């Protein structure tokens, strides 16, 4: 009869997040994770079939964490699309403060459900301002803009004589453009 696991899935995820943020995805192995937890690598197989399953669980955790952060940033009493800039700032803060988790979350996913909940939240937040029919269009544009901005920040582009105020100007223009009625 197999013995029950000595560690919980949540303990494994929390330690894996620490390793991920410290050293990046390439350094995250089941062997290193097990050593850090003081268990044999076989103990991890109770919770995750392999490294890919662990990475999928980390991506799902990242999506949930970003969803909670965006919900918390949603401004009470928002009247127009431009009032949603705190959401954009929260997204960029997540990318900046959790760079390896963000990279894992935005990498191609084997499980589309990982980002489906996050996408549903984004379109739900946008719908009152642009309508349910336009929310996906606006969501894609905003997400693409923010992902590009996060990538530029990650490579240090704003520290090479390029003003970060351009990011704010672009965000205002993007949100303002979608505030206009569709032609």
> Main beta sheet, described?
none
Q: Secondary-structure element sequence?
A: HHHHHHHHH
CATH topology call of the largest domain: Tetracycline Repressor, domain 2
Beta-strand percent range: under 5%
Shape: elongated
Structural class, from secondary structure content?
Answer: mainly alpha
CATH class division of the largest domain: Mainly Alpha
Radius of gyration: 19 Å
User: How many strands in all?
Assistant: 0
Q: Low-confidence stretches at least 5 residues in length (pLDDT < 50)?
A: none
Overall helicity? 55-70%
The CATH homologous superfamily of the largest domain: Tetracycline Repressor, domain 2
**How many discrete domains?**
2
- CATH-defined architecture of the largest domain: Orthogonal Bundle
Mean pLDDT: 89
Number of helices: 9
Query: What is the terminal-to-terminal distance?
Result: 68 Å
């Amino acid at each position: 009869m197999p013995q029950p696991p000595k560690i919980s899935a949540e303990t494994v995820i929390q330690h894996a997040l620490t390793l991920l943020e410290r050293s990046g995805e390439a350094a995250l192995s089941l062997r290193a994770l097990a050593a850090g937890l003081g268990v044999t690598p076989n103990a991890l197989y109770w919770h995750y079939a392999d490294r890919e399953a662990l990475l999928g669980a980390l991506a799902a955790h990242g999506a949930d964490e970003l969803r909670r952060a965006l919900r918390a940033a949603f401004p009470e009493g928002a009247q127009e699309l431009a009032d949603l800039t705190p959401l954009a700032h929260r997204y960029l803060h997540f990318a900046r403060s959790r760079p390896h988790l963000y990279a894992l979350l935005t990498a191609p996913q084997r499980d589309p459900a990982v980002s489906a909940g996050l996408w549903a939240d984004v379109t739900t937040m946008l719908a009152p301002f642009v309508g349910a029919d336009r929310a996906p269009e606006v969501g894609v544009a905003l997400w693409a803009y923010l992902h590009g901005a996060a990538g530029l920040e990650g490579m240090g582009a704003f520290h090479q004589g390029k003003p970060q105020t351009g990011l704010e100007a672009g965000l205002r223009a993007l949100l303002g453009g979608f505030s206009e009625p569709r032609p």
